[in-house]
Amino acid sequence: MLLEGKKALITGARKGIGRGIAVRFAQEGADVGIADIVDDAETQKTVDLIRAEGRSGELFVADVSTTSGIGSLYERHLEKFGRIDILVNNAIMPDQSAGFIDMTEAYWDRMIDLTLKGYFFMAQRAAQEMVKQGSGGRILSLSSVHGYRAWPNDTAYGICKAGLRRMVQSMSADLAGHGITSNCIAPGYIDNKIPEGDSLESPPMTMEQMPRLVAYVGSHRGGVPSDIAKMAVVLCSELGDYVNGETVLVDGGMIGAGTPEAIRSVTD
Ligand SMILES: NC(=O)c1ccc[n+]([C@@H]2O[C@H](COP(=O)([O-])OP(=O)(O)OC[C@H]3O[C@@H](n4cnc5c(N)ncnc54)[C@H](O)[C@@H]3O)[C@@H](O)[C@H]2O)c1
């Protein structure tokens, strides 16, 4: 197991990519705290899935877009687990799309508060704890293909996701010598629906189901949370020891192979 005995904290893990990473980390031997603003049966299910792997799992209801929410989250995580070895910044608000012309100050503030400010202060506090602990650590943030290229109505979201790519570069410089790595994963299209029944995730979307989108994805299928979770294990384990300040695209080839014209055509 690659994460035996590690204590991880993952934000926005009620469902989707966060849940996928939480369960995979548990399978690799980590105890996992999950933080989400929503507390319902699905959030509890993520905790149950962690515990079903024989690891300790705990839900901390938290708003990670405010420094007070972040402070209280760390208090509870550290009280329960005693330390933090891995942070995964993953939370995102449901409305990721807003046009440039009509965007309100309230929308701009909400996006920046969660996806830049929140990710920064979550990472800063994790780094402070890791430096105190003296045994290194891993800080992973979820960027996006929107951090590489523009789609219509993605100004605020895209700016945040591009900013995270730059943030981890500065973190790798400022945290030099502490054994802490800071990286991003930039997913492509990943199905984040809550699957039916007991399965962890829905099967990947096929060419037949979404021909316009996956036609230009080299892998010819949509992504699923476990695609991202596998890379998260690499970057948060000894396998990723020498990867630092990097953003890894896990997009089935979308950015590499999709021409701007092809990508724009699916949004028209
Ligand atoms: N799904 C995709 O196709 C895709 C593509 C590129 C990047 N990403 C990135 O991956 C990450 C996960 O995406 P997803 O689609 O799995 O998300 P999701 O919508 O399935 O889950 C996001 C979770 O964050 C929680 N959340 C929202 N605001 C919060 C707050 N203020 N405090 C705490 N929790 C909060 C939500 O309740 C939700 O459970 C995000 O950062 C997203 O930008 C996703």
Radius of gyration: 18 Å
Instruction: Indicate the mean pLDDT.
Output: 94
Overall number of domains:
1
SSE pattern, N- to C-terminal? EHEHEHEHEHEHHEHH
Bound molecules: nicotinamide-adenine-dinucleotide
Overall structural class, as computed from helix and strand content, comes to alpha/beta
The separation of the N and C termini measures 45 Å
- Compute the number of strand runs: 7
CATH topology: Rossmann fold
Q: So what's the CATH class? A: Alpha Beta
Q: How would you characterize this protein structure?
A:
This protein is α/β, with parallel strands linked by helices and 268 residues long. The chain has 9 helices and 7 strands; from the N terminus they run E-H-E-H-E-H-E-H-E-H-E-H-H-E-H-H. It has a 7-stranded parallel sheet, with helices on both faces. Helix 4 links the parallel strand 4 and strand 5 (137-142). Helix 1 runs parallel beside helix 2, helix 1 packs across helix 7 and helix 3 (67-81) runs parallel beside helix 4. The chain is globular, with a radius of gyration of 18 Å. The relative contact order is 0.14. It binds nicotinamide-adenine-dinucleotide. Nicotinamide-adenine-dinucleotide (NAD) binds at residues 11-12, 14-18, 35-38, 62-65, 90-94, 114, 142, 144, 187, 189-190, 192.
